[in-house]
């Protein structure tokens, strides 16, 4: 005989399972449709009583569905996601970050979750990360042979500093991991400091940033420098103290790699100087810069007209376009002088910098993408 309290408990469990099933179904659908991110946004015009679910596919956000109170309680949905990602469901007025793993068709995905309070309630973004796609061969990234050769000339040096730059979502982390995979050798001591560790790499010593316990990019770098490293990777340069410590590591005899938000190779140098890095240290340690973007490829089925396979966008999947700058003596001299970006660009071009156009031209000539797509991606330039 069931009592009223038992029925309430059973109903709560049913509601909780319905909510979890809904979340899992959206994640599965996102993976199937090649989404990199799932956005859960409370709607202003609905007074926060509905959420829109959006997928970012090939760099473009697309509305997928709406979640209403009739389907599930929105508060329960948000709390369920936060609990899965080991976040505190009771803290609704501050941003939080968390993560969990999700197994789909024998592939393990890292789901990184970030929450943010808005005037209508909490907004969540899930990043869907297939670990296997973060460690690719360089030619799988879209690098032409001449770009790989220029890159090899920088990354196989015993010491120096190579920066991978580009805006958010341009594939910098993937390139960084792929470079580490490319140069990996058992006789080298390779260490990283990351926030967060995106992929666990066998044979590499990886440190996770943890501010609660005092592990920052700077303290992690200093710890690595005492570990007899050959190669060091810093997940991202965010402040002048980090880049100064990184330059010290490079000058002490290590090969160092990192990423930076900057629109092109020359702007990367200008940004580092503007952050407060001394020109002498930058000119001495910097070996090269790889700047990159991701452009959409035309759908192979419809060739750009739009079909069910590409969700009527005309495009399906992306490839990288790259700009590679090797730091020559002429460029070093201009860095020491804090020369203008125009002077640096002119010198770099005359010294063999590989521009974006060298990646773009073959893609357009072979009908793999369009000028309109390239213009969209490089619009900021």
Overall description:
With about 375 residues, this protein is α/β, with parallel strands linked by helices. It has helices spanning about 5-30, 75-85, 145-155, 170-185, 215-225, 240-250, 265-275, 280-285, 330-335, 340-350, 355-365, 370-375; strands at about 35-40, 50-55, 60-70, 95-105, 105-120, 120-130, 160-165, 190-195, 205-210, 230-235, 255-260, 285-300, 315-325. It is about 35% helix and about 30% strand. A hairpin with a 2-residue loop joins strand 4 (about 95-105) and strand 5 (about 105-120). Mean pLDDT is about 90; it is low at about 1-5 and about 5-10.
Summed up:
The protein has 381 residues and is α/β, with parallel strands linked by helices.
Please state the overall shape, judged from the principal axes of the Cα atoms. globular
Portion of residues within helices: 25-40%
H and E order: HEEEHEEEHEHEEHEHEHHEEHHHH
Largest sheet: 7 strands, mixed
Count the strands?
13
* Oligomeric nature of the chains: single chain
| Approximate strand percentage | 25-35%
> What is the straight-line distance between the termini?
71 Å
Low-confidence parts lasting 5 or more residues at pLDDT below 50? 1-5, 7-12
Structural class given helices, strands, pairing? Answer: alpha/beta
- Rg for CA atoms: 23 Å
| Average of per-residue pLDDT values | 90
Helix count equals: 12
- In which order are the strands of the major sheet placed? 9-8-10-11-7-12-13
């Amino acid at each position: 005989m069931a009592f009223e309290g038992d029925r309430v408990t059973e109903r709560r469990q049913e509601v909780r399972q319905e909510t979890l099933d809904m979340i899992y179904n959206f994640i599965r659908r996102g993976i199937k449709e090649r989404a990199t991110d799932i956005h859960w946004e409370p709607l202003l015009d609905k007074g926060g009583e509905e959420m829109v679910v959006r997928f970012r596919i090939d760099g473009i956000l697309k509305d997928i569905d709406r979640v209403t109170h009739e389907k599930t309680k929105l508060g329960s949905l948000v709390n369920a996601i936060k609990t899965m990602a080991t976040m505190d469901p009771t803290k609704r007025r501050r941003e939080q970050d968390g993560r969990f793993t999700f197994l789909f068709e024998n592939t393990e995905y890292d789901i990184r979750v970030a929450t943010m309070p808005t005037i209508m309630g909490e907004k969540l973004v899930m990043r869907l990360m297939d670990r296997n796609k973060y460690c690719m061969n360089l030619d799988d990234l879209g690098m032409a042979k001449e770009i790989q050769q220029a890159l090899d000339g920088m990354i196989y040096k015993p010491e120096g500093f190579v920066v991978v730059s580009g805006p958010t979502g341009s594939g910098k982390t993937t390139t960084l991991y792929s470079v580490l995979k490319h140069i990996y050798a058992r006789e080298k001591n390779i260490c990283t400091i990351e926030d967060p560790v995106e992929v666990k790499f066998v044979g590499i010593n990886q440190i996770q940033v943890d501010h609660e316990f005092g592990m920052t990019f700077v303290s992690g770098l200093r710890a690595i420098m005492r570990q007899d490293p050959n190669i060091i990777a810093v997940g991202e340069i965010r402040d002048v103290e980090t880049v100064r410590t990184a330059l010290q590591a490079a000058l002490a005899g290590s090969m160092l790699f990192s990423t930076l938000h900057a629109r092109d190779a020359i702007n990367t140098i200008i940004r580092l100087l503007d952050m407060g890095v001394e020109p002498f240290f930058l000119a001495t340690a910097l070996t090269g810069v790889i700047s990159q973007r991701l452009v959409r490829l035309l759908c192979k089925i419809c060739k750009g007209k739009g079909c069910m396979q590409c969700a009527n966008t005309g495009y399906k999947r992306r490839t990288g376009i790259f700009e590679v700058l090797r730091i020559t003596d002429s460029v070093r001299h201009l860095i020491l002088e804090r020369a203008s970006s125009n002077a640096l660009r002119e010198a770099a071009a005359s010294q063999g910098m590989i521009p974006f156009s060298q990646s773009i031209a073959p893609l357009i000539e072979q009908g793999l993408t369009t000028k309109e797509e390239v213009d969209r991606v490089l619009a900021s330039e």
